[in-house]
Design a protein that fits this description.
heterodimer; A: mainly alpha; 13 helices; B: about 375 residues; six-stranded mixed beta sheet; five-stranded antiparallel beta sheet; elongated
Amino acid sequence: MPPKRQRKIGRWILFGSMMVVAVIMLYPFWIMIITSLKSESQFLSGGGFSWLSWSTLTSVIPIGQEVLSSTIVCSSSILIILCVGLPAGFAFSKLRFRMSTVVFLVIVSAMMVPLQAILMPEFVNVTKLGLTGGYFGAILVYAALGTPFSVFLFSTYFRGVPDELIEAGIVDGLGYFGVTWRLIVPIAVPAIATVTVLQFIQIWDDLLVGLLFIQNTSERPITVGLAVLSAGRTTSIPALMAGSIVSAVPAMVVYLGFQRYLVKGLTMGIDR
Amino acid sequence: MAEITFDGVTKIFGDDIRAVDELSLHVDDGEFMVLVGPSGCGKTTALRMLAGLEDITSGSLSIGGTVVNNVLPKDRDVAMVFQNYALYPHMTVAQNMGFALKIRGQSKAEVAKKVGEAAAILRLTEYLDRRPKALSGGQRQRVAMGRAIVRSPQAFLMDEPLSNLDAQLRVEMRLEIARIQRLLGVATVYVTHDQIEAMTMGDRVAVMRGGRLQQCDTPQDLYDHPRNEFVAGFMGSPPMNLLRVGLEANADGIALVLGSQRLDVPTSYCSSHDLPTVDGPGVVFGIRPEDVEVLDASSSDSIMTRVERREALGAEILVHLSLVDAEGDNAVIVNDSGAFVARPTRLVAKMGPRSGVAVGDQIQVRLNREHFHFFDADSGLSLRRNQ
């Protein structure tokens, strides 16, 4: 068989395999969408089209408020994670100070502690601070959980940035704050995007912290809202699917928006 | 614009690593000073102290008459060109060049004017809107230069700025940097390990080794009158031939003992040099490769050698010669205190491209008596008086 034809067949096999994978990946989304467009009875009987589940969803839980709460908690936590992780990563990778390696290892080792292991002590602490009512307790917990990873990621990223670049900025007239803000932040966009996407998905999808630390029902996040929806005496599957779509869309948008940076951010350090 | 003075400047890393040891050096206003030396000689550390990127352990460093030991880099008014250019990747060429002016609060119009002028000098006008990623190595190097010159600083500091370029571009940029420096007349300290750059660019060259300044002179003086064995061996390509030899009295004065051969030393050297006594520890005798001449016939001032290796470089041939004794064996030289240093002495000679010498040939060579160099066998210092 001529090599050109061999290559063509190979490409078709690859394309076919990718199509199968795509179908497997997208099938749950498809089921979610079509199920949400049925009433309860249509779902049980198998046919028909209805917006009823969407109106049920909006009447049973304050979906708009919950999306807003999730957004506030998510963005605030990520802001803290970035504000702490970026300068800390810069300091650990570029500045010389006593015990820096030990402090770095202690921070990074915190990545290995599972959420469940520290949940109760955290809850006690946050309760003592009186922050279990609204967003603040959850924001602090998410920020504390996400910061070690971001410090690790940023420091790895900055190790690949030549020292001369920073020194050029210093000779040009910048202080360390200026260097960080005007040189390092623009260069670190892939790392910032990576931290943002990974933390967003993790925080947005998390149920446990939101359930425990946000006790005001008017401030609960979307995941808690969906849990409430599914925990009723009778669960409306189409309404739950509609809620799941609302919950999944922001994470998908953030992921797709940052995906080109994400690959670069996740593979950084490998080719240096 | 200003002059720069290192006065006994020392830099110690950790507890005991002396990167720069008691460096005293003066750079005149508008002068192009090259710091040259092998890796780890302290030249880059000296430059970084001048830029304010390293603290000074002791000594004083002044720019324009002001001691800057404790002055922040941004307040020293010096511009630095780095080895890997250190261009800001997220900025265009124009933004890179104008960045230092911008953070000093100069107006947009003023920044644009100065960037435009610098770009014209550096022939970068058509690339002003490009990012560094879209430039060639030579263009990036020119942008790095541009970033320095727009500031009209008191001094330029350059840390091996040509080492990442290919050989041809390096020659071009060497001329370009020298041209721009002369045009602007700003005191420049240029660090390199390449002695050709040092010789061709510097008004004066400071040779460093092990953190210490070995010699600071004009390139020609450095080449003609090296103050010690290290400078003699470092400057010049190929470097000076350095042979450790004994001295012997003869009817006219003294002669060099080259195995079983003797080479008369002109009497003028006895008055111009502090040569040791004939029975002393001997000296290190130096002769440049271009001062080794091949003869067709034997003469009183020639020595017999054998061709060990030849390297054809196109315009010239480098011939590696070993001294031979009467039997044609490699010479063994007796050195001080009766100790044997079994050292088949080698000479490198530069010959014309058409010379027909072949490996294994025994040939007579004459060493140019005008350009003998003598160094102390122990300290390595030149024995020339009135240095």
